[in-house]
Each structure stands twice: as structure tokens, then as C-alpha cells.
């Protein structure tokens, strides 16, 4: 039976993975700590490792895994910037991921953030719990009739745009690879980024982080945005320049921001730091503003998404022991076709 060393385990991971189809055909070794070259020795005796976004699989880590007999790295996420794929290829270690789990989960969280931010639900919740039933400072605006700018119309952006349309908003979109037929059917209008920024009451980011998109929303972009507009980012933290964001909030250039991702979230998000002094000054500052709403990278966290992540990952882990091919869309490095055994 294949032994799997499972790193950075949270209770919800364990719950969904032990219930996934095929789970009884592998042996799980759950570790709460993360995988890195320093902790790689703990995978001794395992044929595969299962990792998440903050495990660090550089060349040294992969070398140690290979020496201890690991043949598969199964990422239980879509992104793979934390794995040295070239090193894995050279070592003959296979790498798989979960390319898509639930675009609805992320799109729906985008709307949850927008509605909470606009209608001040985060503030109202705290007030009412303290028996403060005053409404001062809780005025929002109707979404109906407003303009929403969707940046990136892939799987998530398209679903988010559809939900925004359901609120009776006009939706503008920008994507270097537009989908004109979808736009026509959905009643969405493509435009250039500058026009989108200038016209939108709400700007929502649904594009990947690439060298070209890093700090897409910088001081110049904030200056082009409609005064008082909201920015929603459920994609990647480094799409937004945090220093410029704080300036835009301080000057009132933008009306508010909701973030599920943050520029420097690694080492902070996914963990309980409630008993510590937060060392990130920009995050601390953002958390003091009433018109800033932050969740800790939880947009994916639905039952459906967790089930799908567990299903795809476990299928690949079971395939290793049974000599079956991995699910085709999930393969990043196919060790059978590259590198020494
Ligand atoms: P996708 O690959 O289906 O779509 C991305 C779209 O962005 C594509 O249409 C692409 O052409 C477009 N794009 C690329 N560069 C662009 C640019 N410079 N400007 C405008 N558009 C650009 O990806 P999907 O599944 O829709 O995911 C979008 C993003 O959501 C992911 O890249 C990821 O960063 C984020 N995400 C966040 C999660 C969370 O829990 N917060 C979970 C899953 C994904």
C-alpha cells in the first residue's frame, strides 16, 4: 500500500481526504508542519508527498525526497509556483495538481465580500452583538444600476460576471484573451483596462499572477479609478501594490477594499496568530480601517471544492501504487516520460 506523507495538514484537509474515493487504498501520514528541505527527512518510508501552497519544494527538498524513495508530489491546489518543476523533471519525480476545483466557490466569495463591505455587515454584526442598534455610518448603495469591472474572464471571472449581472449591474470586462460569444450571451461588454478602471463603481480581479500582472493595481491605476470605487481581490495578493492601496484609502481616492489575498500573506494566512504581535505593518494598518474587509484566503473553502480537491488528489495518489496513469489534466511533470527513473 502506498504511504503518503501529508504536509501542512488542517482538520478540514484530513476530514475530506479520509472520506475521498480510493482513500482506503493508501496509507496516510498526516503532519501539521510544512514540507521544506529541513523537514523532508520526515517523508522517509513514503512513496508520495501531498502538499499545499506554503510547502516549499526547491531543488534541495526534491533531492532529499528522491533519495528517500518519493516518486510523486501531489499538490492539493491549482498553483505550483512553490515547486521547482525543472528539478523534479531532472530527478524523475512526478508532480500533479488540481487544475480546477470550484470556480463557483471563489466567485461566490467575491460577492460575499462585496455585499458585506458595501452594506457594512462586518460593522453591523459587531455593533448588534454589543446591543448597539444605531445605524450611523452604515449607509451603503444599491448595486442595481452600477457598473462592475471584471478583470480576467476565465472560469471564475465569467461566473462572477454572471452573478453581478443578476444584481442588475452593467458589467465591463478586460482580458487579453476575450471570449466574445460568452460576453454577447451574458450581456457583458469588453473594454480596455483604463476605460474599465475609470467607469467602474466596483473593480473585481480574476486574473492570475504573472510577471506582467504583478502590481497591476498600482498608484497609477488607483489614480485612474472612479473616485469612491470599491476594489475586490480574490485572486492573488501581488496583483495589488499595498503601499499604493493604503495611500488610496487614506486620501479617500477609493471607497473601500475587500481582500481574500494579500501581498505578504505567506507565513500569516492559514494560521492562528491571535496571541502574537503582528509584525506586518501594512497589514496591521489595513486592519484598522473601517472600509477594509479581509479574509485569509478562504474563497476556495466550500464543501464542494474540498471534496473535488480530495477526489482528484487521492485518485492520483492511488494510481501511483496501482501503476495506473495519473488524471491527464492534473499532470505537471510526468516522471515516466522524463528524467532518470
Ligand atoms: P483562468 O485561467 O480560468 O482565468 C484567468 C483569466 O485571466 C484568463 O481568461 C486569462 O486570459 C486572464 N488574464 C491573464 N492575464 C491577464 C491580464 N493581465 N489582465 C486581464 N486578464 C488576464 O483562472 P481562474 O480559475 O478563473 O482563476 C483566476 C484566479 O483566481 C487564479 O489565477 C487564482 O489566482 C485565483 N484563485 C483564488 C482562489 C482563492 O481561494 N482565493 C482559489 C482559486 C483561484
Summarize the structure in words.
By secondary structure, this protein is an alpha/beta fold. It is 34% helix and 16% strand. It has 12 helices and 13 strands. Strands 8-7-6-9-10-11-12 form a 7-stranded parallel beta sheet, with helices on both faces. Strand 1, helix 1 and strand 2 form a beta-alpha-beta unit. 38% of the residues are buried. The mean pLDDT is 95.
What is this entry, summarized?
The protein has 341 residues and is of the alpha/beta class. It has helices spanning 11-19, 59-67, 85-91, 103-118, 121-129, 155-166, 180-186, 193-199, 219-224, 242-250, 281-286, 303-322, and strands at residues 2-6, 26-30, 48-51, 72-75, 94-96, 147-151, 170-174, 188-190, 202-205, 229-233, 254-259, 292-294, 331-333.
- Can you say what the CATH homologous superfamily of the largest domain is? NAD(P)-binding Rossmann-like Domain
Indicate the percent of residues in helices: 25-40%
Largest sheet: 7 strands, parallel
The gyration radius over C-alpha positions equals 22 Å
Any key phrases for this structure?
341 residues; alpha/beta; Rossmann fold; 2 domains; 13 strands; 16% strand; globular; binds 1,4-dihydronicotinamide adenine dinucleotide
Present the secondary structure layout.
Elements: E1 2-6, H1 11-19, E2 26-30, E3 48-51, H2 59-67, E4 72-75, H3 85-91, E5 94-96, H4 103-118, H5 121-129, E6 147-151, H6 155-166, E7 170-174, H7 180-186, E8 188-190, H8 193-199, E9 202-205, H9 219-224, E10 229-233, H10 242-250, E11 254-259, H11 281-286, E12 292-294, H12 303-322, E13 331-333
Helix pairs in contact: 1-12, 4-6
Amino acid at each position: 500500500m502506498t504511504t503518503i506523507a501529508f504536509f501542512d495538514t488542517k482538520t478540514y484537509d484530513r476530514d475530506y481526504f479520509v472520506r475521498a474515493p480510493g482513500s482506503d487504498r493508501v496509507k496516510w501520514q498526516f503532519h501539521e508542519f510544512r514540507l521544506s528541505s529541513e523537514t523532508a527527512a520526515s517523508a522517509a518510508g513514503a512513496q508520495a508527498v501531498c502538499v499545499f501552497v506554503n510547502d516549499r519544494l526547491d531543488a534541495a527538498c526534491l533531492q532529499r525526497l528522491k533519495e528517500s524513495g518519493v516518486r510523486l508530489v501531489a499538490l492539493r491546489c491549482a498553483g505550483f509556483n512553490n515547486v521547482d518543476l525543472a528539478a523534479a523533471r531532472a530527478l524523475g519525480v512526478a508532480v500533479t495538481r488540481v487544475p480546477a476545483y470550484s470556480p463557483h466557490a471563489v466567485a461566490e466569495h467575491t460577492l460575499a465580500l462585496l455585499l458585506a463591505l458595501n452594506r457594512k455587515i462586518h460593522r453591523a454584526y459587531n455593533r448588534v452583538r454589543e446591543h448597539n442598534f444605531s445605524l450611523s455610518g452604515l449607509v451603503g448603495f444599491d448595486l442595481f444600476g452600477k457598473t462592475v469591472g471584471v478583470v480576467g474572464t476565465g472560469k471564475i471571472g465569467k461566473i462572477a460576471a454572471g452573478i453581478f449581472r443578476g444584481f442588475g449591474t452593467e458589467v465591463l470586462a478586460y482580458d487579453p484573451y476575450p471570449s466574445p460569444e460568452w460576453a454577447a450571451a451574458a450581456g457583458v461588454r469588453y473594454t480596455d483596462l483604463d476605460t474599465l478602471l475609470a467607469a467602474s463603481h466596483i473593480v473585481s480581479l480574476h486574473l492570475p499572477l504573472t510577471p506582467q500582472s504583478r502590481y497591476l493595481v498600482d498608484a497609477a491605476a488607483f489614480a485612474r479609478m472612479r473616485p469612491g470605487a470599491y476594489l475586490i481581490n480574490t485572486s492573488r495578493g501581488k496583483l495589488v501594490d499595498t503601499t499604493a492601496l493604503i495611500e488610496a484609502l487614506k486620501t479617500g481616492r477609493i471607497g473601500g477594499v475587500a481582500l481574500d489575498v494579500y501581498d505578504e500573506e505567506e507565513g500569516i494566512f492559514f494560521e492562528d496568530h491571535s496571541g502574537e504581535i503582528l509584525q506586518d505593518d501594512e497589514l496591521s494598518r489595513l486592519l484598522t480601517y473601517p472600509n477594509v474587509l479581509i479574509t485569509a484566503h478562504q474563497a476556495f473553502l466550500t464543501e464542494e471544492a474540498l471534496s473535488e480537491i480530495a477526489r482528484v488528489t487521492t485518485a492520483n495518489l492511488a494510481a501511483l501504487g496501482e501503476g495506473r496513469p495519473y488524471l491527464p489534466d492534473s499532470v505537471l511533470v510526468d516522471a515516466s516520460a522524463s528524467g532518470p527513473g
